[in-house]
Amino acid sequence: MPEDKKKGQRTFVVNQTHIDPSTESGTQLTLAKYELIYAIIGQVLGLVCILGGLALFLNGIAGSTNWTAKIFGAESTITDAAPGAILFIVGLFLVWVTRYKFSHKKAN
């Protein structure tokens, strides 16, 4: 692509997804709408898990849960945790993963 055509172009970014600026605006709006729906559902499920974890923890529900996870080289180990703590951590993870990120960036 010639350098003069790149100048001033913007890239449409939705939740880490790069879309070519020449894509129809209707397609871009549809994608943004579904990304927003995905984010809202994830945020609501994460909030339910966080509140459920808090309820279990504050009501003194006892138990012993072990958790070991290895994802992309990262390792997480939790030993002898209460069920409320595990549910709370899962809720935080859901909220973090499904956050909605919308930005415009200039094309490289």
Q: Average pLDDT across residues? A: 78
Tell me the fraction of residues in β-strands, as a range. 25-35%
Radius of gyration: 20 Å
Write out the strand line-up for the largest beta sheet, numbering strands in chain order. 2-1-5
Query: How far do the termini sit from each other?
Result: 10 Å
* 3D shape: elongated
Please count the helical segments.
3
Number of strands: 5
What is the helix/strand order? HEEHEEHE
Class computed from helices, strands and strand pairing: alpha+beta
Question: Which stretches are low in confidence, meaning pLDDT under 50 for 5 or more residues running?
Answer: none
Largest sheet: 3 strands, antiparallel
What percent of residues adopt helix (DSSP H or I)? Answer: 40-55%
Give your account of this protein's structure:
With 108 residues, the chain is an alpha+beta fold. It has a domain at 45-108. It has three helices and five strands. The strands form two sheets. The chain has a three-stranded antiparallel sheet with strand order 2-1-5, with helices on one face. A two-stranded antiparallel sheet has the order 3-4. A hairpin with a 2-residue loop joins strand 3 and strand 4 (74-81). Helix 2 (25-58) packs antiparallel against helix 3. The longest helix is centred in the middle third of the chain and has 34 residues, at 25-58. The chain is elongated and about 55 Å long. The model has no long low-confidence stretch (mean pLDDT 78).
